[in-house]
Amino acid sequence: MHRIDTPTAQKDKFGQGKNGFTNGDPATGRRATDLNSDMWDAVQEEVCTVIEAAGIPLSKGEHTQLHAAIGRLIDEQVKTRLEKNQNGADIPNKLLFLQNVGLEETINLAAGALQKSQNGGDIPDKGLFAQNISAALAFSGGVAIGGDANPWTTAEFIVWLENCGAFNHPYWMCKGSWDYAGNKIITDTGCGNICLAGAVIEVMGTRGAMTIRITTPTTTSPGGVASAQFTYINNGDGYSPGWRRDFNTINKPTAGDVGALPITGGRINGALGIGTDNALGGNSIVFGDNDTGFKWHSDGVLGIYANNALVGYIDNSGLHMSVDVLSNGAIRAGNAKKLSLTSNNNSALTATFNLWGDPNRPTVIELDDDQGGHLYSQRNPDGSIVFTVNGDITANTLRAGGAIYQNNGDIFGSLWGNGWLSTWIHNNVVKAVRLGPVALSGGLWRDFQLGGGQVVTGFHTDGSWEMEGDDDKVYYRPIQYLIGDTWVTAPSV
After folding, report:
1. Cα distance between residue 224 and residue 149, in whole Å
2. Whole-angstrom Cα distance, residue 38 to residue 1?
3. Which ranges of 164-285 does DSSP label H, i.e. alpha helix?
4. Residue 451 and residue 444: Cα distance in Å, rounded?
5. Which of 28, 35, 113, 489 has fewest C-beta within 10 Å?
6. What is the rounded CA–CA span in Å between residue 194 and residue 181?
């Protein structure tokens, strides 16, 4: 059989190299596909071969022979095939079939296989089975461990585990029965007795390298530790095995267990830093800053440090400071309410300042030195105050009630009109006296008077020594005095 390949065939009609037929197109001059004898011979032989292969003779007048031939060929093939809907029931020799597909050995093995429906219940030796598949094994939920309540060593306990096959599995566990008289007590752990009644035992590892964990119940026989978890570790030859007990919310550690300072108090060996590391060293305490705090120097002597510098110390004679002391509040000393400050370091004489009092003198302030007192002040029971100074008082300003004494000698007080004395003198005291401007009177007459505050300074005549009223006159001036900055003419009485 082949595809049409005449010159008029439509090239690649059904894809590359797949020619086809065309009816042509008169409008474009394209010719219809020509059919040659090669093409028709190929078609004829293909069809005839199928009909004859089915054993059907060719008949010129019949046009369904190809369909009949195909059906007969299919039927012949189906006769030797299995029917799907028979599910293998139409296999003639089933044993031979299983042998041919290699299932004979599988069938033989299945005869001794475990039944899935048994969920492992048909395993003959379950312990050996768990061991072979390296599975965990729950040995028992209530077994008498040791058989009595006598003490047990760890070595005896391990022998019992070994006899139970505990080391044949990667994980093995059991629980002691609730029988105090039938379960041993391990007494050589070094961290408490383990009463095995009701305890859960877990074993991990092998005999040569094991971890054993025992969890005790909430109640236990006398001498045992309840609600605890004990762990025994042995990592093999050359390793020192031993027990340890975990702390939990019920079995809390003591301060001694963890090396802590008890809340009731205790001893700290070494330096202490609060909020920081300690750089002072020795027996010291620092606060926030690693070199600021207190440090023990010697018997009865405690040093005070700031930024690693010794700023003072305390001993049985008191507080000694090598730097300034600043107080924003009161400084008190003793139940007798007496404060005494003494210095013999910065002066030639030892000076003492005392602050004290008694019922007759509620408050007394004294300052003296080796040669006597400087000042003394006391408040009397009636509330008044007496202040005595042995020497001069120098001050920029002194106050006495409402009066003020300035260092320039001026005084302020109510006597001066609630003002300064200098201002009062300026405004009220005559500072100077003078005669005012000269004036010439009119004529003179009998009982002539110039008026208040005027004085005669000269006479004027027309040349005759005889006084004549209209022709004779006098020169006069007013008497004036200066108050403040104003010249005032003196009045007459």
Report:
1. 12
2. 9
3. 255-258
4. 14
5. 28
6. 14
pLDDT tens, residue by residue, 391-434: 888 888 888 888 999 888 899 999 998 999 988 988 888 888 98
Instruction: Report the C-alpha gap between 345 and 304 in whole angstroms.
Output: 20
Per-position DSSP letters for 40-106, written without gaps between them:
HHHHHHHHHHHHHHTT----TT-S-HHHHHHHHHHHHHHTTS--GGGTTTT-S-HHHHHHHTT-HHH
E strand or H helix at 427, and its extent? helix 421-428
Tokens matching residue 179: 């029988």
Tokens of 451: 């008026």
Phi, psi of 245 (to 5 degrees): -120, 130
Q: Is 173 left (phi over 0), alpha (psi -120 to 50) or beta?
A: beta
- Token reading at 393: 């008082």
Q: Are 204 and 234 spatial neighbours (Cβ–Cβ below 8 Å)?
A: no
Report the alpha-carbon distance of residue 165 to residue 357 in Å, rounded. 92
Ramachandran area for residue 119 (φ above 0: left; ψ -120 to 50: alpha; else beta): left
Task: Please report how many Cα atoms fall inside a 13 Å half-sphere around the Cα of residue 116, on the Cβ side.
Answer: 1
Give the tens place of pLDDT for each residue, 10-43.
888 889 989 888 888 888 888 888 888 888 888 8
Angle at 202 between CA 201 and CA 207, to 5 degrees: 110
Q: Are strands 200-206 and 194-195 parallel, antiparallel or unpaired?
A: unpaired
pLDDT, tens digit (0-9, with 9 covering 90-100), for 464-489: 666 555 667 888 898 888 888 889 88
**Residue ranges in 124-240 assigned as alpha helix (H):** 126-132, 154-163
Calpha distance 480→435 (Å, rounded): 6
Q: For strands 419-420 and 430-435, give the pairing.
A: unpaired
Whether 149 contacts 180, CB under 8 Å: yes
Residue with tokens 């020169």: 475
Other Cβ atoms less than 10 A from the Cβ of 386: the count is 11
Q: Which residues contact 101 (CB under 8 A, 6 or more apart)?
A: none
* Closest among 174, 108, 103 to 137, alpha carbons compared: 174
Cα gap 380→328, rounded to integer Å: 28
